[in-house]
């Protein structure tokens, strides 16, 4: 039931990447609110609405893993994957829009 060193490393690496991506997304969204980053008009709505879906997906995936008898590391990773997928997609989308530079 304990994590193996490999599982602990995978989980901590995935969690660390998700947290770093989330911080970058937060920064770009704040810059967007300040007019310094090109963001879509619906970005303010999206940053609130997406949380409910991410929590739902994370809960469902963790529940499926737990009910199928997987160990704690697998359940934790299953819960983290939907959140990481979302942060990675947000980061890529916002990076492509770029800063709002004077023309």
What does this structure look like?
This protein has helices spanning 5-33, 43-67, 72-97. By secondary structure, the protein is mostly helical. The protein has one domain. It is 78% helix and 0% strand. The longest helix has 29 residues, at 5-33.
What is the structure about, briefly put?
This protein has helices at residues 5-33, 43-67, 72-97. By secondary structure, the chain is mainly α.
Separate helix tally: 3
Count every beta strand, where a strand is a DSSP E run of 2 or more residues.
0
Strand content: under 5%
Order of helices and strands: HHH
How much helical structure, as a percent, in the residues?
over 70%
Which residue ranges are poorly predicted, with pLDDT under 50 across at least 5 consecutive positions?
A: none
CA distance, first residue to last residue: 58 Å
Counting helices, strands and paired strands, the structural category is mainly alpha
The biggest beta sheet is recorded as: none
Mean pLDDT: 94
- The outline comes out as elongated
- How many domain modules? 1
Radius of gyration (CA) equals 16 Å
Keywords:
mainly alpha, 103 residues, 78% helix, 3 helices, single chain
Topology summary:
Elements lengths: L4 H29 L9 H25 L4 H26 L6
